[in-house]
User: Fold this.
Amino acid sequence: MSLRDVPLRTLSGESTTLSDLVGDHAVLVVNVASKCGLTPQYSGLVDLQKAYGPRGFSVVGVPCNQFMGQEPGTAEEIQQFCVTTYGVDFPLLEKAEVNGENRHGLYQTLVKTADAEGNAGDIQWNFEKFLIDRDGKVAGRFRPTVTPDAPELVSAIESVL
Assistant:
């Protein structure tokens, strides 16, 4: 099964897939949290969506509460926070586990991808990023400290458009 066809649920609880959610766009999947020191990265993710959305790109946020309980809210609270605080206009999925025995199916595949240093495995923290090309292949993994405007991430996005 392609990553584009893995069953997902939107933040509002609707069944979907990446293909249904964003069409044939390249996708940056990011596990997000509202109460994290890295939460301001939402601004950069919104900027990426605005800059590259018209060219066939979308950010998709996956709220996760596995890292020190930094995403404790309900779906409604998460949505309200993201929209009112950062103007998030990209799709958000339901809260999911990205590590452990209940790891979401999407992340079961994503964590097999190595980062720039050759390390695969568990998600390290909130705001880890995976770039998926239009064919559903992982084109890059970027650790949480790689900001949305980092040259290596921007270059990777441009290479898949």
Observations:
- The domain at 3-160 is CATH 3.40.30.10 (Glutaredoxin).
- The helical segments are 18-22, 41-52, 75-86, 105-110, 151-160.
